[in-house]
Amino acid sequence: MSRLLDKNLSRRRFLGLSSCALATVAVGSQVKVLKALAMTGKVSEPTAMTSKDVFTSCEMCVNKCGVIARVKNGVIHKLDPNPDYIKSRNMLCARGNAGTQAVYDPDRLKYPLIRVGERGEGKWRRASWDEALDLVMKNMNEIAEKYTRAGMMFASTEGFQEHFFLMLAEAYGSPNTVRHATLCLSSNIQGFGATYGTNPNPDVLNSDYIIMSGANRSEAFITPDTIDFLKGDGGQRKVVYLDPRFTKTAAKADEWYPIKPGGDMAFILAMINVIVSEGLFNQAYLDEHTVGFDKLVPHIEPYTPEWAEGECEIAAADIRRIAKEFAAAAPKAVYYQGRRSSFFSNDTQMRRAMAILNAIIGNWDVPGGMIPSGKIKLAEHVYVAPWYDDVPDRLDKDCVTYLSEKDGSWKHFRDRVIAGEPYPVKGMMVYKQNPVASIPNRAKTLEMMKQMDFICSIDITMSDTAWLSDVVLPEATYLERMDPVESIPGLLPLLSLRHQVIEPLFEAKPCLWIMQQLAKRMGDEAAEMYDYTIEEFVEHQLSLLPGAREMLDSKGIYYENATPVYGSSFGKPLKTKSGKIEIYSEKYAENGHDPLPVFTAQTTVPQGKYRLLVGRHAYFTHGTTANNPYLHDLMPENTLWLNAGEAKRMGLKHGQRVRVKSPVGEEVLALEATEKIRPDSVYMCHGFGVLSKEQTKIYGKGGCDAALLEDEVCPISGNVAMHHTFVEIFPA
Ligand code: SF4
User: What is the dihedral of CA 116, 117, 123, 129, to 10 degrees?
Assistant: First the structure.
């Protein structure tokens, strides 16, 4: 059997490597002090002052910015940015600063809990870890016996310890893992992947011309793009921003266009039309690096700016001018693809159009253009999982053309659980994910959960999904655990190591520990998969990189290049069928999809209704941080944006409560009458309207977008489409 490590490796060596503190002064055990703080808000007076600074990595969102935790007397007093951490450019956002409250929030999960009332009634009893884990294992065994091992599903989202959780699905023998990608960026990955063989990074810092559509980078943070975008460049760079709302990104752009929702692809195709028809491309470049340009020329002919004006409501003259400016700035110009896509069910083709526009100006792998993602290689974790006969394929197999085996497609998966087809799934293990609040059409998610024989959630707070579970297991927060090394891809590839800052409060445990305990209950083979400490795991990961651990300990980061490397892909085949940039996709043609993007108009907003737009706010990460005490102070609830003229026409007043009704749900929110949105659309921020009464600060406040959104989906990638839904508004 393959093993992670040579067990002869001296444990003394691990201890020698583990002194991660920047400057450690007489640190003793402060667990009692911490517990006192968390429970009473008061800190016991220590007999001697102790302090330390620890390098760690933020987990308040997906960006993993570099952090220095300042600890005094065992209490985390402050989180500061790590100035050496090139990805986050010496910055922590509001959420990053509020990370201490993930630890000290009185609402955090403290002990294993077993449900005693009805599901969702909120009645729990505290259990020991052994009792809770025995109960989880008993239910998992019963499900395996009754429905096969595929009868358990494992839902999770990205995180440094997610690997350990996903391994549990293998140890148990279920193919049914469902991750968040199809609620996020899978159409983006698919559209750019079909063109370039990868999802490249826009070189925002060095670009002279950036067009952003729908990627609200000043509020939906992605580091380093947000910082590079906001940094400015002395007026040389031009930013054109398309969004139905006047966001903070619009305020920072040179030009803002309140584009008609669903019109993005028309705008892009018209830009391609101008560049092609006016010969603003580099033929020699296209001949050498791309395939299919000859097919693009006749395809793009009907998509003139004059045609696009009717579809996107941006003047033809502006489209023409922007296309010429964009081509003139080439190759230091990018059509920025954003991250979360999934606006409409044609989203993958819209991303294809973006990729093709970038390709024809020749911005691939050059300064200021689209750069392939680099990644620092870690030693692979090799393990052998037990083998079980007679386990069927994953439940959502074949539901879309390009389904990720690891991610699945949440919408399709849920539909098949509800239908019980092609086989029953009756058990749910959830780690760090909150499907109740994040998958469009919450009523269906609740129906899916009702059909489960057993649900277990592992989390740091009582999310809506945890609230509806049978067993809830408290995970240690990111400041209370050491995590595996993460190789973070991007323009500046780096390694990040989350050092443990303090001991876990209460009875919270790291995911690895929880998985080890469950694996032991599964048997020797499963236990063998987890037979190492976190220190041993990290040492193995870094075994190919001499000096990496020392740098991670002394600087909180490991990297090989502090500035982007350009041209690394030149002379090598891309990961596409042809090995070149595929303007025309043979692969799509073979699978029955348009090989070149074809515009499909979205349904016009019906009389008396509004298109519901959803999005992010800089204070919140999905549904995970709205209940954070510091962030809650900044924004206690979400509102419904409605154009001020429309509000006046309907006799609605700013601040009054309104009932928002969609075909699948109803929510009540305060009205925000504003000029910052098109008259045909309304907008609400994600993350409120919770069901869990243990999110005490936000329970009863605001509305839940997932309760209103219908569950349209992209047939190529399986990504949900977030902007299809129309709503009506009434005074509440
Ligand atoms: S962007 Fe903010 S929340 Fe996200 S990792 Fe960075 S500091 Fe943390």
Answer: 20
Of 40-44, 143-147, 162-166, which gets the smallest average pLDDT?
A: 40-44
Q: What are phi and psi of 582, to 5 degrees?
A: -100, 95
Angstrom distance (rounded) from CA 484 to CA 661: 45
- Confirm whether pTM is higher than 0.90: yes
pLDDT category of residue 18 using cuts at 50, 70 and 90: very low
Mutate to test the pocket of ligand 1, among 56, 57, 58 (most ligand atoms within 8 A of CB): 58
Nearest residue to 67 via CA among 350, 585, 479, 528: 479
* Confidence label for 233 from pLDDT (cuts 50, 70 and 90): low
Length of the chain: 732
Whole-number Å distance, alpha carbon 488 to ligand 1 midpoint, is 14
Rounded to 10 degrees, the C-alpha dihedral 338/641/714/412 comes to: 120
Q: How many helices (H) and strands (E) does the chain have?
A: 27, 30
Residues 349-366 have pLDDT tens digits of: 999 999 999 999 999 999
Is the minimum distance from the CB of 60 to ligand 1 under 6 angstroms? Answer: yes
- Contact present, 640 and 117 (Cβ < 8 Å): no
Residue 111, phi-psi category: left (phi > 0), alpha (psi -120 to 50), beta (remainder): beta
Give the number of other CB atoms < 10 A from CB of residue 265. Answer: 29
CB of 63 within 6 A of ligand 1: the answer is yes
Question: Which residue's CA is the closest to the ligand 1 atom numbered 6?
Answer: 65
Share of the chain above pLDDT 90, in %: 86
CA 18, CA 27: separation in Å to the nearest integer?
15
Q: Is the dihedral of CA 167, 170, 174, 177 positive or negative?
A: positive
Ligand 1 lined by 58 (C-beta under 6 Å): yes
Q: Taking a C-beta distance cutoff of 8 angstroms, is the pair 686, 434 a contact?
A: no
Q: Is 96 in the pocket of ligand 1 (CB under 6 A)?
A: yes
Instruction: Select from 174, 170, 108 the least CA-distant residue to 428.
Output: 174
Ligand 1 atom closest to the CA of 57, numbered from 1 = 5
Mean pLDDT score, 617-638:
92
Question: Which range has the worst mean pLDDT, 70-79, 199-208, 337-346, 369-378?
Answer: 337-346
| Rounded distance between C-alpha atoms, residue 697 and residue 1, angstroms | 50
Taking residues 535-559, what's their average pLDDT? 98
Atom 8 of ligand 1, nearest CA residue: 96
Ligand 1 neighbour 93 (Cβ under 6 A)? yes
Residue from 56, 57, 61, 628 whose mutation best tests the ligand 1 pocket (most atoms within 8 A of CB): 61
